[in-house]
């Protein structure tokens, strides 16, 4: 199979071509960061309109990179949810129109399942079962992954996701959107322990998390500071925030390892690119004689490659009749809210390579 993957769930438009025998042939990504930076966050209407402008051009770009034509594509995988409704519709409209024109199946992919599969695009690839920590702008979850399509939610944030906490902290520190890279870079200049911040629910005897209290703790520190614009203070506060957030995530992951007795861990989502988080989680897992897996750095954020990889797995689990039914389906929809646990089980192919 040669599968075209299309991602348009939020503020990044991604396209990629993956062969089930040759791996990732080409990918392209357009980020809307510069457009949304003026507003301090994603504006859904602007995001949707930009996806419309980009998705066809990116598709043509990856085809040219791979030396393929649209007629070479045997199937299309597109993010069906969760995400922003308008953004999802932009990608799905193009995917289904192209599928109809070419007479090929179009399979809807769960965005978070794509993130889980991204780690299988590198070698060594994780083997089932494993624990997964999904940390992104909109999701912070710990899951037990028994097999492809078999997901058990063990814990999640009750309020802000880790990525949201980064963005809000960046605003308080006068840093640009998105907050993750900016706060992490400033934290490198700070002194560990100079400013101690709240670590909500770190000692709770479960795997639930909360980051709104950490954000409030940052706000209180800024409000009470003699000079909140002082560079030393800002760097120490950024360091205190990163250390607190990493402490909470590490503590919950360690508790999950003890509860499940699984010490193979996949960490995925945009926040998984954070250097401080990677180093700490790697230490904790290896200390327990486990193995930790991260997607290739460029595939941590939303991208078309992870959607194509999940699409191949879904298509390979289908009968020929089920694939034919996808070709004959003329209607489509999107799922802005879509529980990961509701997905059907499927057979996963051998690990694909970048």
From TrEMBL:
Compartments (UniProt record): Cytoplasm
Query: What is the superkingdom listed in this entry's lineage?
Result: Bacteria
Annotated substrate binding lies at: 134-138, 167, 180, 274
User: Reaction catalysed by this chain?
Assistant: L-threonylcarbamoyladenylate + adenosine(37) in tRNA = N(6)-L-threonylcarbamoyladenosine(37) in tRNA + AMP + H(+)
Any Gene Ontology biological process: tRNA threonylcarbamoyladenosine modification
For this chain's record, the cofactor binding note is: Binds 1 Fe(2+) ion per subunit.
Keyword field: Acyltransferase, Cytoplasm, Iron, Metal-binding, Transferase, tRNA processing
Note the InterPro entries from the entry: ATPase_NBD (IPR043129), Gcp-like_dom (IPR000905), KAE1/TsaD (IPR017861), TsaD (IPR022450)
GO cellular component term of the entry, any: cytoplasm
Ranges for the Gcp-like domain? 24-308
User: One Pfam family, short name please?
Assistant: TsaD
Q: Which molecular function GO terms apply here?
A: iron ion binding; tRNA N(6)-L-threonylcarbamoyladenine synthase activity
Q: Which cofactor does it need?
A: Fe(2+)
Q: Show the Gene3D superfamilies listed in the entry.
A: 3.30.420.40
Q: Where does Fe cation bind?
A: 111, 115, 302
Q: What is its EC number?
A: 2.3.1.234
The free-text function statement in the UniProt record for this protein reads: Required for the formation of a threonylcarbamoyl group on adenosine at position 37 (t(6)A37) in tRNAs that read codons beginning with adenine. Is involved in the transfer of the threonylcarbamoyl moiety of threonylcarbamoyl-AMP (TC-AMP) to the N6 group of A37, together with TsaE and TsaB. TsaD likely plays a direct catalytic role in this reaction.
**Family the UniProt entry places it in:** Belongs to the KAE1 / TsaD family.
NCBIfam families (UniProt xref): gcp_kae1 (TIGR00329), T6A_TsaD_YgjD (TIGR03723)
PANTHER family reported in the protein's UniProt record: TRNA N6-ADENOSINE THREONYLCARBAMOYLTRANSFERASE, TRNA N6-ADENOSINE THREONYLCARBAMOYLTRANSFERASE, MITOCHONDRIAL
Would you tell me the protein name for this molecule?
A: tRNA N6-adenosine threonylcarbamoyltransferase
């Amino acid at each position: 199979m040669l599968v075209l993957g299309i991602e348009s769930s939020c503020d990044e438009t991604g396209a990629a071509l993956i062969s089930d025998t040759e791996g990732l042939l080409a990918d392209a990504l357009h980020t809307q960061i510069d457009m949304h930076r003026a507003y301090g966050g994603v504006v859904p209407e602007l995001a949707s309109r930009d996806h419309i402008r980009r998705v066809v051009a990116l598709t043509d770009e990856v085809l040219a990179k791979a030396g393929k034509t649209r007629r070479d594509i045997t199937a299309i995988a597109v993010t069906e949810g969760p995400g922003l409704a308008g953004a999802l519709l932009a990608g799905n409209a193009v995917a289904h129109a192209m599928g109809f024109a070419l007479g090929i199946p179009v399979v809807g992919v769960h965005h978070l399942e794509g993130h889980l599969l991204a780690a299988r695009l590198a070698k060594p690839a994780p083997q089932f079962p494993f624990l997964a920590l999904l940390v992104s702008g909109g999701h912070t979850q710990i899951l037990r992954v028994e097999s492809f399509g078999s997901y058990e939610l063990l814990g999640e944030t009750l309020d802000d996701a880790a990525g949201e906490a980064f963005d809000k902290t960046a605003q308080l520190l006068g840093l640009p959107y998105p907050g993750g890279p900016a706060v992490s870079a400033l934290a490198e200049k700070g002194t560990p322990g100079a400013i101690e911040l709240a670590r909500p629910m770190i000692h709770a005897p479960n795997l639930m998390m909360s980051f709104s209290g950490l954000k409030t703790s940052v706000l209180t520190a800024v409000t009470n500071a003699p000079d909140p614009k002082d560079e030393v203070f800002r760097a120490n506060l950024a360091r205190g925030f990163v250390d607190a957030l990493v402490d909470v995530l590490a503590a919950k992951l360690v508790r999950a390892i003890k509860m499940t007795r699984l010490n193979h861990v996949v960490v995925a989502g945009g926040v998984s690119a954070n250097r401080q988080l990677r180093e700490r989680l790697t230490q904790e897992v290896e200390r327990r004689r486990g193995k930790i897996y991260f997607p290739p750095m460029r595939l941590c954020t939303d991208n078309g490659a992870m959607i194509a990889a999940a699409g191949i797995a879904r298509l390979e689990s289908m009968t020929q009749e089920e694939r034919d039914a996808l070709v004959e389906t003329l209607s489509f929809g999107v799922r802005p809210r879509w529980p990961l646990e509701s997905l059907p089980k499927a057979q996963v192919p051998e690990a694909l390579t970048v």
